[in-house]
């Protein structure tokens, strides 16, 4: 007998549905952490850890690049959830509850479009590419 089948006769959840639910919960937790880290009731260590976790989760640069087979996604599958778990333990429960509700409200409003941040990230990458190009040009020519 399948344990996932409920008494009402609903279909069992597929693995894909479970993974989507976990990803949604992780994303919601990241938003909660992002909102809560600025609260004065959060310790400086928890704030520092929260900033690092959120920055790493949303950064396009990974510890292990994704193009490396198998190992490329291990950091995303292990480090980010582990960082979120630890951060949620470091932030006081009353603060988390307050900001979970706020994160849920923001989720219902839809994804904000922050074009300025995107433009800054693109400008930084272009600047780094230009600096690397100039360095290589001077090195070899």
From TrEMBL:
<keyword id="KW-1133">Transmembrane helix</keyword>
<feature type="domain" description="DUF1232">
    <location>
        <begin position="46"/>
        <end position="82"/>
    </location>
</feature>
<protein>
    <recommendedName>
        <fullName>DUF1232 domain-containing protein</fullName>
    </recommendedName>
</protein>
<dbReference type="GO" id="GO:0012505">
    <property type="term" value="C:endomembrane system"/>
</dbReference>
<feature type="transmembrane region" description="Helical">
    <location>
        <begin position="67"/>
        <end position="88"/>
    </location>
</feature>
<dbReference type="InterPro" id="IPR010652">
    <property type="entry name" value="DUF1232"/>
</dbReference>
<keyword id="KW-0472">Membrane</keyword>
<feature type="transmembrane region" description="Helical">
    <location>
        <begin position="44"/>
        <end position="61"/>
    </location>
</feature>
<dbReference type="Pfam" id="PF06803">
    <property type="entry name" value="DUF1232"/>
</dbReference>
<feature type="transmembrane region" description="Helical">
    <location>
        <begin position="115"/>
        <end position="137"/>
    </location>
</feature>
<keyword id="KW-0812">Transmembrane</keyword>
